[in-house]
Amino acid sequence: MTNKFAAFAALHVPGDPVVLYNIWDVGSAKAVVAAGAKALATGSHPVADASGWPDGEQVPIAFALANATRIAAAVAVPLSVDFEGAYSTDPVAAGVNVALLAATGAVGCNFEDQVIGGEGLHPLKLQVRRIAEIRKAVGTDFFINARTDLFLKHKPETHDAAMLDEAIERALGFADAGANGFFAPRLGDLKLVEKLCKASPLPVNAIAFPGGPTRAQWASAGIARISHGPFPHRALMTQLEENARVAISG
Question: Which of 35, 37, 54, 62 is at a distance of 20 to 30 A from 231, taking alpha carbons?
Fold first, then answer.
């Protein structure tokens, strides 16, 4: 297992990003591995959608852990799990929950700073405490991909230098608390992305989205990890619906 942790961390190379084509169950995991993936990552949204729950920690934690266990056991490559806000705002409880996730065989997780079920982001000091408690609970090897929803919470046209400064402050704080990576979903302005990658002490994760930068453009800006979020599941469901429509209509 230690080798999996090291192998996963080593994939995060600024300018040569690992692509994590997000999966949601064993079947999707095996398909993405067959396509040549070096690592896997679930997305909370596709896991929820595929299982009949809304996103936002509405998937019961017992189901999330069991799902991670099944996926980790079914594939040889490292698995990271989108664990949203670790199912608790309390730092110690969050640590306990992520320790349960680590016991499934996952080598890492996404951990976000938005107030799930509420408004805005957790204060930086609280989020730093939460990450520090998670690090204490899981040990040194587990990959904590600390996510800020700062850009996700604001329209792209409002993304500016001041918002970037706030994101960099969070990246610095998260790094000091023990995070391994920094995820800034929906930041797509490549000039801002490049500045973030240069200023962040952690490898930066972007999310690919329709109409967004290409893999080569993300790489040139210094991105180390590209996620695909809910879009693989949505594309597959669209294709399934179309195939079913053709079959049904004859």
Answer: 62
